[in-house]
Structure formats: structure tokens, C-alpha cells
Amino acid sequence: xxxxxxxxxxxxxxxxxxxxxxxxxxxxxxxxxxxxxxxxxxxxxxxxxxxxxxxxxxxxxxxxxxxxxxxxxxxxxxxxxxxxxxxxxxxxxxxxxxxxxxxxxxxxxxxxxxxxxxxxxxxxxxxxxxxxxxxxxxxxxxxxxxxxxxxxxxxxxxxxxxxxxxxxxxxxxxxxxxxxxxxxxxxxxxxxxxxxxxxxxxxxxxxxxxxxxxxxxxxxxxxxxxxxxxxxxxxxxxxxxxxxxxxxxxxxxxxxxxxxxxxxxxxxxx
Length: 270
Fold this sequence. Notes:
This protein is mostly beta strands. It has two domains: about 5-30 and about 145-265, PK beta-barrel domain-like (M1 Pyruvate Kinase, Domain 3, Beta Barrel); about 30-125, no CATH class. The chain contains three helices and 18 strands. It has helices at about 105-115, 150-160, 225-230; strands at about 5-10, 20, 25, 30, 35-40, 60, 65-70, 75-80, 90-95, 95-100, 120-125, 145-150, 175-180, 190-195, 195-205, 240-250, 250-255, 260-265. A hairpin with a 6-residue loop joins β7 and β8 (about 75-80). The longest helix is centred in the middle third of the chain and has 11 residues, at about 105-115. The chain is globular. GO terms for molecular function: catalytic activity; molybdenum ion binding; pyridoxal phosphate binding. Pfam families: MOSC (PF03473), MOSC_N (PF03476).
């Protein structure tokens, strides 16, 4: 069976609701505008849906001049790129420290009111620099890798085992593929989509964020799907893995229905 792209998603602000796309430019640090914004506390430490589940209810709209934010109970916030501050401040994403471009006091106030804590909004600006660990590959505010790939068959396999239905959105992939066997992506080492080649770098370890319902921002009381995944997707290091982190090896353009060509394979941990 032919393996193709089923869906493409970007998440302009880390941990907010994704935007489904028909096509996207692939840049060194991933899909265009994916996780180019991050919310932090007053010290610059990143804030995500792991601690603030309400973030999944923030929706974003991109335009050529800026970004628009909406959330339940909040007025629309419109930000222009030209109005962003010229100030760069330290931002910490996991163990990485980098400089983020401060967006505006209005953005800080809006996010602080919605999330109920002192917040800052930063942009991955021209002077922001970050790399995938132990490599020269750039990455923006994503957890650690430019893109996440997951197959529909893998999700279907999970839903056959899990007592409650799990949505693809709970795993926040960038590229969803169909037409392959469940967990076929575990064995891929190098793939080509359109005119872009990708290194399949590392399985993606999953956390409590996957238990947040993307439509209600509530956490599953029995910690699903992590509880089910732990029964058959736990590595020797104790981490639970689902999906693959991938790194683009060149720039280009990809779109829904593009074929996924497997160029090289590798041994799997499962």
C-alpha cells in the first residue's frame, strides 16, 4: 500500500491548539511558523499544557502581518510583527537556554489574565539561536526536534487497546501519515516527502500532556492514553514512546497526499 501524508499541523504558539494545513514550507527548523512563539513565566522558563492545560483552548490565526489569539472568555488579541519589541531576553526550554524576542506588554497581560499567572510571550526572532542536542540542526521552541511524525495505523492500534477513544490531537504531530502498518515509522531511518529528505532521529517520549482532552482541557482521571501505552511502548529507559522525531535535511515544500518514500531503515527498540 502507498504511504502518504494524511494531515499536516503547525502549533504557532507552543502548547496551543494546532492549525491543520493542506501544504507547508519545510525550513531547517521545521514547518514554517511551527512553535515560533513560547509562553514563559516571569523568569523566562517555558510554560506548557503540562502545567497549564487551558493552553490547548487558545486558538491562533496567522496572517502576513502578525498573529491573532482567541480563548474562552477572552477578547481577541491581535499582534503585529512590526510592533514586537526589539528586546531579547533569556528563555529556557527544558535544559536549553536561548534568547527570545519579547512580543509586547499587551500579549503578556492577555496571557497572564487567561492562565492566571504572570506570563511573557516570546518570538523566535532573527537573533534567536537553538540547536537539536548534540547537532548543528536548528530548532525553534519545540521540545527538542523540528518535527514529529505519527501514523494513523499506530493511533488505530492504540485505540484498539485503550478503554477510551484517543484523538490524534492529543499527540500534537506535525505530519500524520497513512497507508503503512502500525509502528512502521519505528523502523524508518531516512525518508523523502516531496522534495524534502528527513532523518528519522529518535522515538518521541510521551508525557502527562497526552492525557489532556484538546476540546475540554480536562485531564483523564486514569491517565489515558499513557496507562495503556505503558503496557507495550515502554523503552528500557522507562520512557513511553509514541511517534518519531524527525529532522529535515533540506528545505522544500510538502503537501497532503504526498507520498512518503522510505530511503533507509533501522532497528527498532520494540
